[in-house]
Amino acid sequence: MPSLSYLFARLLQIIPTFLLVMVFIFLLVRLLPGDPAIAMAEAKATDAQLEQIRHNLGLDQPLPIQFLVFVKNTLTGDLGRSIMLKAPVTEIILARLPTTIFLGLYSVLLAICLAGPLAFLAASRVNRPVDVAIRSVFQVGLSMPVFYIGLLLLTVLAAQLRWFPVGGYGKTFLDNLHHLMLPALSVALYTSAIILRNLRASLIEVLDADYVQFARAKGLSRRIVMTRHVLRNALVSTVTLLGLSIGNLMSGTLVTETVFAVPGVGRLMLEAIFARDYPLIQGLTLTFAVLVSVVFLMTDIVQSWLDPRLRQS
Amino acid sequence: MNEIEKETVLDVRRLRTEFGLAERPLVAVDDVSFQVKAGEILGLVGESGSGKSITLRSILGIVRPRGRVHGEILWKGRDLVPLGEAALRRVRGREIAMIFQEPMSSLNPLLTVGLQISENLAAHTDLDAKARKARAIELMDMVGIPAARDRLSDYPHEFSGGMRQRVMIAIALASNPKLLLADEPTTALDVTIQDQILRLIQALSRDLGMAVILVTHDMGVVAGTCDRVAVMYGGRLCETGPTADVIGDARHPYSLGLLRSIPRNVAPRTPLYSIPGAPPSLDALPAGCAFTARCPVAGPECRDVRPRLDSTGPQRQVACHHREQALVHFSAQEAAQ
């Protein structure tokens, strides 16, 4: 297992990351064209009324002061009030976040279940028909945008065959699984294509490695050779890639959740952008940054658990 | 030592290992027969690509890419060639162990050496976890790893090259094999460490009564370590015999050439002999003697007629059409220097 000092050092690295993210979020929102006061106010609002709104939002303060206020509020969990939904941003996000995390985990699990066995199959039959077929099918998956795959799935499996609902989230856990199947699958198809390519390549490499030959020469069972020696070593690079693609997947939720009408933070982000809801955009961006950082942190921990050479910090 | 009393543990008969299409096979090992007696160290010598490693891997059935193995490999009278994976696994590591050339890449970098020793014990013995640990410490002691107890939880990258080779030997010895296949165990090590490892293998063979097939390209290693030697070229045997006889009185032009290319007591700045040319590739082997193209005494029949491995004395076998000419050719060269 990775040592505590390694974990601690890795956790400390998050702090500068978050500071930078906060600076970027703060500046980006203020550099965007458009005036939230105008967006909030009635069409016939007077200049004085607009000024009042700006004052209430703290937008009349100098930028550095606004930033310090922003950092202070963020640290205390206060992300401001949403202009669009007229409710605290933290509450809105926390209400929607589980759906997105659920969808994310669901699609990652689906991707692993799809890519893992198929990568094994392909790697054990390199350049034979099975391998070529698997690779070609997933190449198609890789070259189509996620939303297009999503629309295809919607048209065939939901609209025509009626196996799955066209949108929504559902109430019970099984209901959730059923409702999110198509969005999860459309993301998973793309992610699994990436994982499959990488895992297949590293499996092929590891299968030929001296230590695997040595493990076979030791008379170990096929199961032990495959799991302890082949899979574990092949996973080292695949885990990195998986972490990166989960990071990517986060921005993908904007599209997926919109296409499938999933009430998660991705769709919320899109709505907030259209409404120029600054506090909500800030809060959501920060949420995404936290999610991605957590994913990368977990990736690093899993990796250092897999590979002792990475533990020296 | 009385050689006659020792039983033959491994009897390889007409071994042939080939790859590729059945219609146009690439023959890596061709018609190779040899025996190994209990406790004996047999040197298998030849250049890269001469089929030494494939011969070893054929014995354990771990040839990769999967090749076709023909002939008989009699281990204590039982033929290993037709055995399935499950039956072979009970021989691998348990009765016949193997160590590899690259200690850097032959140990799994992600697992502690303790686990890599004890997984061997788990596969072949009934020892419980505690007994396996004790045995692992004992094995690491035996192969000369200092502070064995503390090093069980270390990873391969925390060991030097020579120490890793010792770890590999400890793993191989875990379940008291009766035959150790050593595939160039010292090639990747520097010279002083090479000698230590060879002495270790020799001592273990003597103390444990374990037979060894030592694959090497280095005649010097053979001279200092092996009881008998078999010289391979192009997947075939060219000469076998007791080490002293083969080194002192080689008959095959290839063995003569190999021996001539060892630096010896000659005048300073004498150019070192080297065998001209390069070994043939597997798809360009002649029907006759594989060494024809590089042989100084080859005649017209050598290319087409395969020389038989004939007995030329007690325990001596040579496969050459022109044994007398070879001897004359190389002794004349010797005299010229």
Question: How is this structure best summarized?
Answer:
Chain A has helices at 4-12, 14-31, 36-40, 47-57, 63-75, 89-124, 129-143, 146-160, 173-207, 210-217, 222-259, 265-274, 278-306.
Give the H and E element order of chain A.
HHHHHHHHHHHHH
The CATH architecture term of chain B is 3-Layer(aba) Sandwich
How many helical elements of chain B? 11
CATH architecture of chain A: Orthogonal Bundle
Share of helical residues of chain A: over 70%
Q: List SSEs of chain B in N-to-C order.
A: EEEHEEHEHHHHEHEHEEHHEEH
Q: How many strands of chain A? A: 0
| Residue fraction in strands of chain A | under 5%
CATH class of chain A: Mainly Alpha
Unreliable stretches of chain B, pLDDT < 50, 5 or more residues?
Answer: none
Counting helices, strands and paired strands, the structural category of chain A is mainly alpha
How many individual helices of chain A? 13
| Poorly predicted tracts of residues of chain A | none
| CATH superfamily heading of chain B | P-loop containing nucleotide triphosphate hydrolases
What is the radius of gyration of chain B?
Answer: 21 Å
Number of domains of chain A: 1
